[in-house]
Amino acid sequence: MIPSWIRRTPVVQAGRACYRNWVSWRRARSDPAEQWRRGIADEIQFWEHWLETKGGGFPIAYTERLNRHGTLLDDFIARHLPPDQPHIRILDVGSGPVSSLGFPRSPDGRPIELTAADALGRSYGELLHRYGVEPSAWPIPVAVEELSTQFDDGVFDLVFCSNALDHSVNPLLGIRQMLRVVRPGCYVILTHEQNVAEAEGYAGLHGWNFDERNERLKICRGSSEIDVGQVLNNAEVSAFRKPSRLGQLWIYASIRRLPELHADLGLRN
User: Fold this and answer.
1) Which of 172, 169, 221 has its CA nearest to residue 200?
2) Statement: residue 27 has pLDDT above 60
3) Which of 238, 234, 224, 192 is nearest to 211 (CA)?
4) Residue 5 pLDDT > 70, yes or no?
């Protein structure tokens, strides 16, 4: 075994940092679909621990998500609800076993019907049964890239995705699919920790980075970068940065499906 004083020397520390950077560089250039398949077990293990320990190091989040008295929608989400609907239908994409929206309540008292969807929904359903947890919406097993195989065009008044699209195989296709199932004139809302794939060394399901520059939403992986607003011809895109209550920067984005007659929605990368 290498003595601890040697492990702490600058040369050894620098060597470890170089190795971590090399591993991250290789992962960023790997096939996203293969990375996703390799990361499934870790993701399920994370959520099993979360359910078993009732939130792990963040018990407040566990309590909030399962508070059956309801959780008031975040102001950013509430401002993007359609004003003309007496009954609001929300889809939470990549919800995990328990939606971060909890049992959502609208500030103006309108009833909300929540639907949850996750590519690992079948595994999450098994975990929920195992630990006797009753979520606000049981996750339907469908990937973000395949939403239109499960839901009709324009059936939701708002589509929400938080810290999950960075785990997908094809986030741009996922956005197009979310736009397909939201009503024309309504919004897809994205909230993601800034550049988390880089911070995590592209480990597990962390495959994509989300960032904002000049109010434009950027998605990056390795040296490739997508300006979401430039490539979508059927939507208005706006983004900004906001610190979380734990201090990390998050990227908030609103994507409005334009009420056009002919849209390119979800069929192309």
Assistant:
1) 221
2) no
3) 192
4) no
